[in-house]
Amino acid sequence: MYLEFFQLNEHPFRLSPDANFLYLSQQHARALAYIESTLWFTDGFVVISGEIGCGKTTLLEKFLSELDETVTIARIAQTQITPVQFLQGVLVQFGYRPFRMGKAELIDTIDRHLEDLLSKGQKVVIVVDEAQNLERNVLEEIRLLSGVGAGREKVLSIILAGQPELNDTLDAPDLVQLAQRTRLRYHLKPLKESEIGAYVRHRLDVAGAEGREIFDRDTFDLIYRYTGGVPRLLNTLCDTAMLSGFAENVSFITEKELRSAIDELQWTDYQSRTDRMAALSAGSMHVVTGLETLARLMVAHKDEPAVDFPVAQGRIILGRTGDNDLQIESKFVSRHHAQIVTYGSDSVLEDLNSTNGIYLKGRRVKKRKLKHGDVFVIGEHEIMYLKEGLPDVGAQEEDQNEAEASGS
To answer: Quick one: which of 115, 199, 216, 253 is 20 to 30 A from 321 by CA?
Structure first.
């Protein structure tokens, strides 16, 4: 019904990566050229980094979809692995079942397989997505994989794609040899404001709009304001706006439908979401207008004054860089380290595949429903979760001590 209503053949703003819908902005075209260069220069790595939702995976899908039968592809998407598991993963992509092989046998099998492909005039591309999660010993194994064996440099190309902390890892002193073998690096940024209209029209045309205007041009500024040009956020907002239009029997999306979608998503403008911590560090509490504060986070670091951060409905991203909702500046914190999702009266803490993890009561946790008074540790920072309307933990302990004293 949705597609028939808008006279489309496909969903134009789906979140899953689809090479057919790739919008080649100037920077995306350049990044794709860098990726394609791995087939010309097979003596180093190509590294593509970018924030969450900026189109890295879609670029890889586009590149891989255009390779012919002369190229063998090994794609590694699970990156929280050991060096042995990485080598096994590569061989699985080559058609082997290597799960009982030791490391030496794994390396020898890969080497012989590459030599065989070289003799047949084949090339091999190893693509590692979400590479920011790789342990350093795995990255070192990848470096060794690229440089061992006669003729291997003529057949093997390696692409590493990941979030910005991948660059920080590659710049570490103990990985200098890997950095030296990196031929090209490119960092994807969000789309510019001037590109929003072209992006929206492109995806609609691919979906079957054939040049028909479905979004009012006056909405593009507002779309940019609330998405910051991040393609994944663009897709979420535009799809929600079209669903709103469908529900209201409106086939031309104006500011009214767009604002209805923004309200449904409970979004504030992109800049206020990314600048929230900056406001706190300047000594002022930033509370999103119209959203009730349901809890707060007390962020403590050594002898520094604790920072009080409000928690409302929706999602809060915690990490090292300024584009997070709650910025925690520390080398022990990943760029996007964790998230807290709050719906109703419950808040759920979740690790975003960080390098150093989240600890609660001395144990590393992946996902946890927070309780009043929970203290979790990110790097060297302790963060206490306190629900609004309940007494502070210190006050509770004091009341309990007084009760015990009066009863003795």
So the answer is: 199
Tokens 């999103």, located at residue: 288
Q: In what order do the strands lie in the sheet with 295-300?
A: 307-311, 295-300, 381-387, 375-378, 358-360, 363-365
Rounded to the nearest angstrom, the gap between the alpha carbon of residue 108 and the centroid of all alpha carbons in its chain is: 34
**227 Cβ contact partners less than 8 Å away, ≥ 6 residues apart:** 190, 233, 234, 236, 237, 270
Q: pLDDT tens across 167-220, in order?
A: 888 888 888 888 888 888 899 999 999 999 999 999 999 999 999 999 999 999
pLDDT tens digit sequence for 218-234: 999 999 999 999 999 99
Name the DSSP class of 321: S
pTM to 2 decimal places: 0.66
Give the number of other CB atoms < 10 A from CB of residue 63: 23
Neighbours of 389 (CB within 10 A): 8
**How far is residue 295's CA from residue 16's CA, in Å, rounded to a whole number?**
33
Question: Residues 223, 192: contact at Cβ < 8 Å?
Answer: no
Q: How far is CA 386 from the centre of its chain?
A: 28
Radius of gyration of the chain (CA): 25
